[in-house]
Amino acid sequence: MNHLLFIARRLYGHEGDTKRVSRPAVWIATAGIAVGMAVMIVSICVVAGFKREIRSKIIGFGSHIQVMNYESMYALQPKPVVVSDSLMKQWANISNVRHVQRYALKPGMLKTENEFKGIQFRGIGPEYDETFLKKNLTDGVVPIFSDTVSSNRIVISHAIAQELHLNVGDKVYAYFFENTVRARRFTVAAIYRTNLTDFDNTFVFTDLYTCNRLNDWTPEQVSGVEIQLHDFSMIDETAASLARHVNRQTDPYGATYTSATIMELNKPLFGWLDLLDTNIWVILILMIGLAGFTMMSGLLIIILERTNFIGIMKALGATNTSVRRIFLFFAVFIIGKGMIIGNIIGLAIVGAQAVFGWVHLDPSTYYVETVPVWINPWYIVFINILVLPLSVLMLIVPSFLVSNIHPVKAIRFE
Fold first, then answer.
1. In this predicted model, what pLDDT tens digit does every residue of 274-288 receive, in sequence order?
2. pTM
3. How far apart are CA 161 and CA 360, in angstroms?
4. Helix (H, G, I), strand (E, B), or coil: what is residue 142?
């Protein structure tokens, strides 16, 4: 085996006559592998980055798991459930749970002098993790929201601000309709922008106390609890563990607790994100096929041009299998070089986009302003492990051309 590898290496490194047809064939095959690798790396990093960015935004509005009143799953109006400090501590101690925070919902309408818009107030308390809001702020400062006093301040989205012509510091009236019409005046404290149209056009953040008062709930009653996790990949296991503590339990008012993951609450969006995986597999199959067929044509040219060499090897006692292995080793050198070049080009493109964000998108269509990328080393390793054996397997059939070359005719061949 070592002597076959040595011969293949010598053949690969031998420049020979510069007019030979095989040299351009080697270059084309190497370029085909390099282009295929670069496209696969860029594609998988972009799709992974896009999924990660959109998923993080959806989770920002609802965390990984929510505990709520069972009736809220089907009711138009939010239903309350009692969440005491002891319950929050109990849920916070479940494995993989990073943070627990309460929320309260109240539908209403914002109205200015000339415009109005139906919205959903989302009341948050002092334990709320402001990382998501602060990351997506475009103007203003997120106020300190309380569960014991009203601040009369709100955080609205850029879309709502544009539609109602509001800026930070402006006053705006909110109206709430139940048995009677109630009005509250709020000050715009900050403006956020996530580019998730359905969410940006709906949610307005205010303090938990205000929503509770508007709902006529007790201080311990809320719409639910948002639970953030350390590891998203373990969300199903954590949700199952939480369900054993929560589901079918009742509060002092008879409300039944239930829990749901963010995927269950946003099935259309996560279903759409899962479809992107199909696109990745299509790209991988097409690029591996392109690289494989380029290598097949290149190998056929190389074998035909080395007919004289094949004849001499067979005359010296080499078997068809040994000669085929020489040319397969030759092909591995070409594939390896193309993969190295492709990795360098692909990672350079992805790295440049991650640092400089040169390629922009329409946020109203794609939910992001620049093409998001995520370099996951395991994905890169997977692509490299996948490409090499599949490319070599595709070359086994054309390598059998060696069996049809007879030593006497091959040695005479020019």
1. 888 888 888 888 888
2. 0.83
3. 23
4. coil
